[in-house]
Amino acid sequence: NILKAIGFREFQRSVWVHPLSVPSFLKDFLLEDGIREHIKFITAGKIDKDDAFKKLFKPLTVPNKLARKSD
Question: Pick from 27, 33, 60, 67: CA 20 to 30 A from residue 40's CA?
Answer without folding.
Answer: 67
